[in-house]
Amino acid sequence: MILIGLGSNLSSHFGSPRLTIENALTVLHKGATRLVSVSNLYLSAPVPYTPYQSWFCNAVVRIESALSPQDLMDRLLCLEEYFGRVRGVPNAARTLDLDLLDYSGEIIREDGLELPHPRMTERAFVLYPLRDIAPDWVDPVSGKNVMELIAALPDNQHIVSCSSYGKGTVVFRPCGVRREFSPL
To answer: Which domain holds residue 153?
Structure first.
């Protein structure tokens, strides 16, 4: 199972962050990669939180590819550049962020490539969409499943799920309170 996280909080030449994500999905389904499943779209506050940045549009996809982990990472970096990503300050706003989250459970620690992604288990904007498409996923480092990782998240990460049809589940995690409810 190969998992990629997508995020955007700046418009690109394709339009809004949501349109940027949708166009990135189209590109990911071409050439050496094929989409297998796509999570709901989520809106999440920046991590670390800053009131000066817009919220991110996020998703996680499962793909198939014959590319090696390093070749796939190189392709993702090229796609980010194609969508207008400019690297500068860490955690800055961006047109597109593509993170290689997991590559078939491999544990890799090389210059420029760490698998699984070293912070994915600490991020609501990764774990909630991951739960949508791989509810049985287990972190190869800790041995914890996605539900255990979600339960251990800090309470200060705000996230809203919205499907492409305007329906979804709101997950709002303010001030230590966790609640999930359907807005419909």
So the answer is: 2-181
